[in-house]
Amino acid sequence: MGHATANSLIRACNSQISTLTVHADDYLSVTSEISPPIAVTSTYRIPEKLGVNNFGPETHIYTRESAPVRSRVEAVLGAIHDNGHAVTYASGLAATFAFLLYFKPKRIALGVGYHGTRAAIDLYQKRVAPVTLIKIDDPYHEDDLIFLENPVNPTGEVVHLYHYGRRAHAAGATLLVDATAAPPPLQQPFRAGAHFILHSSAKYLSGHSDVMGGVIVSRCCEAAGTLRSQRTLLGSFQGSLESWLLLRSLRTLDIRVRQQSRVAAQLASWLQCAAEGRGYEGIPVNAIAKVQHASLQILPKGYDVCASFPHGFGAVFTVQFTTEAIAKQVPNLFRLTANATSFGGVHSTVEWRYPIDQSTCPRSIRVSVGLEAFDDLKCDWVYALTYALHGEAAAKAKL
């Protein structure tokens, strides 16, 4: 079957995420390799009959503008987001700042979430143009930018996206959803009324803690074209090696994210059994104060969260301890779980976020569940918490 025919079949069959991540870029194949090659060139031979601005996913002139593997990864990213139009960047914050330059907002309704987003907006305010920040539940005006994370970093809790989508459309505002913590197949923000979707692709999209990148997905082809043209001038493009690593990772996105989500919900529920200082299945008393995750969240009446997240929630959640001393100590006591920043990789990680984000509780840590088995992670938590409260000898006695 030819590549063009295969691509037509994918669209005709309304293919699922697992198929799209493997085949949505088939039409861009130019060689017989199953895994596409990495183009390390910075420039290309110019076709004899090249029109003015005749650049596209199959025509490459200069790597700052486009590259074969970048076109392929953008084809896959667009396909898995309800056939949107994807533009990749060097990092998630590069994508955020590029969007601010594109949209030129005068007012931004900003939800809670990643502190870097607020820092990018502050930089835009200082160096580019003034912006009025309003609360996410304030009345919206036409041309406002509604900037929401869903789920929220670092708690992993979700917002009622359909509610904000309806409000944005009624006011003529634009809704941008940072879906980094729950990519497809977990949610599809366009269905809730989003106009743009943002990801830090260093997280679940790459999933192996070896890629920096960001992506903006637009409903509108023209908007994506403008973003891509502006990216050429900003120079904030993703390199070919990073694009190749991201494409490799997207092939397994569906199975990775579903598994991480399932185990995260199990682990959050198990840890919640020890909340309010209760001891539970080896977890010492007076260790855990509370656990925050979408699976434990009390949601607004009328919010059909199962319809919004049919395949589970993200694999990030927050554990709050009874003391700050435990929060500082525990990240260094795990044997399987690494004390590291970022999230979304196949290795489970934890981080005491307070030193870099004072909006977080100093008694809490952010947890990112990888692909380890649930029972092994439980043992890891029992060991670390017992060590923190009762010492190494007591922890080893539980092994």
UniProtKB/TrEMBL annotation:
The keyword Heme does not apply. One of its GO terms (biological process) is transsulfuration. InterPro entries: Cys/Met-Metab_PyrdxlP-dep_enz (IPR000277), PyrdxlP-dep_Trfase (IPR015424), PyrdxlP-dep_Trfase_major (IPR015421), PyrdxlP-dep_Trfase_small (IPR015422). The modification N6-(pyridoxal phosphate)lysine is found at residue 203. The keyword Endoplasmic reticulum does not apply. Pfam families: Cys_Met_Meta_PP. Keywords: Pyridoxal phosphate. GO terms for molecular function: carbon-sulfur lyase activity; pyridoxal phosphate binding. GO terms for cellular component: cytoplasm. PANTHER family: CYSTATHIONINE GAMMA-SYNTHASE (AFU_ORTHOLOGUE AFUA_7G01590), TRANS-SULFURATION ENZYME FAMILY MEMBER. Belongs to the trans-sulfuration enzymes family. This is Cystathionine gamma-synthase. It comes from Tieghemiomyces parasiticus.
